[in-house]
Amino acid sequence: MNYKRLGKTGLWVSELCMGCMTFGGEADEATSIAMVERCVEAGINFFDTANVYTGGRSEEIVGKALRPYRDRVVIATKVRARVAEGPNGEGLSRYHIMQQVEASLRRLQTDVIDLYQVHSWDENTPLEETLSTLNDLVRQGRVRYIGCSNFAAWQLCKALWLSDRHDWARFDSIQPRYNLIDRVIEMELLPLCQAEGVGVMVYSPLAGGILTGKYRPGEPPPPGTRAAENKWFLERRAKPHNIERAQRIVGVLQQFDRPLVQTAIAWTISHPAVTCAIIGARNMEQLNLILNGWSGPLPPEEKAVLDEASALPPMN
């Protein structure tokens, strides 16, 4: 396992980060703990969850599973999504953040969160309020670093400017979606992150399973797949044009020596701006497809082949 510094910080994280969204839901507690132990065995020291995942159960399981390894792992969680009724049950206000950081610390069984991230933009809260609150948490020692997720380039740029202007803790990382059929962040976000030294934790490197080749154009999704069980994913991600693009790319992925899923993930971390790829699994079999024989980023010549195969049509 290779390790990289997270942005401009001195924090070293593994090139694979275990995403824990399935914990307590699609993966029961015993399976989730076993997967955490397998990750630690493979050299993964970075684990990402959120207060909203499986109603807080994900954080509880992560805290329990990582307790024996707490002094050598990096725990990341998030705040923003609705977790309670009422107008203040969601968002990035000082009220909501201060309330939720305490709940996350309790569930994670820790006295400090290594990386505390805002889950998405909140148009109803001044960015200054959010950033000053996060800065207070860093100064108080309850949070070590802060990051954001699902921000557009202009939103990240504004946040960095405000932090610099007020001498606040700044976003040291961002979580965007990135894979061989969704390369839009290469246009503005990745160049910004390279220029400003912001770490990039990409999620959905397999496009939610679309890049595994399990879906066929014009055919219903196979039983047991995410598209078959999740209407939102079927309508928003498993669109016909994405399935068609994925089929062409899968044919290229199959030409390489390493397993298809590993090649697709390795392509994402081969971009010089990317710090790590967030992987996910519902069971040990899926996890081992990624970890068994993992060999890191792609050689330049292999990356070039996939770059060409997945290139978007030129804009007129």
What does this molecule look like?
With 316 residues, this protein is of the alpha/beta class. The protein has one domain: Alpha-Beta Barrel (TIM Barrel). The protein contains twelve helices and ten strands. The chain has helices at 29-42, 57-66, 94-108, 127-140, 153-166, 189-196, 226-229, 231-236, 240-253, 260-269, 284-291, 300-309; strands at residues 3-5, 12-14, 16-19, 46-48, 74-79, 113-118, 143-149, 171-175, 199-202, 276-279. It has an eight-stranded parallel beta barrel with strand order 3-4-5-6-7-8-9-10, surrounded by five helices. Strand 3, helix 1 and strand 4 (46-48) form a beta-alpha-beta unit. Helix 1 (29-42) packs across helix 2 (57-66) and helix 2 (57-66) crosses helix 3. The termini are far apart. The mean pLDDT is 93.
CATH architecture: Alpha-Beta Barrel
Q: Low-confidence segments, ≥5 residues, pLDDT <50? A: none
Largest sheet: 8 strands, parallel, barrel
Discrete helix count: 12
Q: What's the CATH class, please?
A: Alpha Beta
- How many E strands? 10
Which structural class matches the secondary elements? Answer: alpha/beta
Radius of gyration: 19 Å
**Count of all domains:** 1
* CATH topology label: TIM Barrel
